[in-house]
Design brief:
disordered N terminus, single chain, 2 helices, mainly beta
Length: 343
């Protein structure tokens, strides 16, 4: 459930993009295995129509993965590439519209959230009910299916994923304002936090999620809040605390950890922007800095490759236009590089 929908061919790549991609490819060829790239293309383009890109992630070698709501597939841009190519085909292991994606190098796993959200135009009469929202897992290199787990609460909507250092996968459940977890080797997801309403009432839109050390951070898009949840030694959730920021955020969506004490956040409000939030030691207060503003096509996700943060614009308003309203024209789908430096 992302901002462009709620707050509301492919062009030839320029010379600068081509040069950047060539430089990045050269760096990739000489960089040690598993090391993030220091350079990359100015843009990564997904050359398909009606993709409605919703999330992206990257592995340590600089490979970027992009999820699609519109086509129900996952695209992959190899290290240094300026164009993403199909990787996980539609309906693989039953997957539907793809929302969050997350690459976990340690387990060689690409996680993905899939399901049908409770928003957008109603389906035609007689349409079969959608399958339950679920967390999917694929081999990070080959794309082979590794598993599928339905979210535990009725009416759930799996939105995004983060992985703790012990290998536990956490998924945000937007509809129920909860976080579910999948412990290593577990056969099913379980509610981890939010069953007591700690993230706010239904409709607040729990969305982006990240792990920093022994703390899980999750945001709420409609209430413009970020919450901090300690991961206790026994793996249970500690007390949920709202993070106090020195300036307001607007429509926080996709969110990733940056080093040991910062977050990078795609904000859909105020014309679209990407920001960095540096947290205190307790992860209860944060300094909010806008890195770049002016993403009018709806920033929905971020990921870091080398010293760039890539910002994905979903153009989701084209997918969720109200019945009878003309959908806005679709531009090339892309993720744009913004310099962020080292953590």
């Amino acid at each position: 459930m992302k901002n462009a929908a709620k707050h509301a061919g492919l062009n030839a790549l320029g010379l600068a993009t081509t040069v950047a991609a060539t430089v990045a490819a050269a760096v990739a060829a000489t960089a040690p295995a598993g090391r993030a790239l220091a350079a990359g293309p100015a843009e990564i383009v997904v050359p398909s129509e009606k993709v409605a890109t919703e999330s992206l992630t990257s592995s340590s070698d600089g490979t970027v993965y992009v999820g699609s709501i519109g086509t129900g597939q996952i695209f992959r841009a190899k290290p240094g590439a300026a164009t993403a190519e199909p990787f996980i085909k539609p309906k693989t292991n039953g997957i539907g519209p793809v929302f969050g994606v997350f690459a976990d190098d340690k387990s060689n796993t690409l996680y993905a959230c899939s399901g049908s959200p409770a928003f957008g135009p109603p389906p035609p009469a007689g349409t079969p009910p959608p399958p339950p929202s679920a967390l999917y897992a694929f081999d990070l290199k080959s794309g082979a299916p590794k598993g599928k787990w339905n979210l535990p609460t009725a009416g759930a909507f799996c939105n995004d994923i983060a992985v703790g250092r012990d290998g536990t996968a956490y998924a945000s459940d937007t509809q129920n304002m909860q976080v579910a977890r999948l412990k290593p080797g577990a056969q099913q997801l379980e509610v981890w936090a939010g069953a007591d309403g700690a993230f706010g009432p239904s409709g607040g839109v729990v969305d982006g999620i990240a792990v920093l050390g022994d703390t899980l951070l999750v945001n709420a898009l409609r209430t413009n809040k970020i919450f901090s949840v300690p991961i206790e030694k026994d793996g249970k959730a500690g007390k949920v605390t709202e993070v106090k920021l020195d300036s307001a955020i607007a429509g926080p969506d996709g969110m990733r950890s940056f080093g040991s004490s910062a977050l990078l956040v795609a904000e859909g409000g105020d014309g679209g922007k990407v920001s960095k939030i540096v947290l205190n030691a307790a992860k209860t207060e944060g300094k909010h800095t806008v890195l770049k503003a002016g993403f009018p096509d709806g920033p929905v996700a971020v990921t870091v490759v080398g010293e760039n943060v890539y910002v994905l614009e979903g153009q989701l308003s084209s997918l969720f236009a109200p019945p009878g309203s003309p959908a806005p024209p679709v531009k090339p789908y892309k993720a744009t590089a913004v310099p962020v430096g080292k953590p």
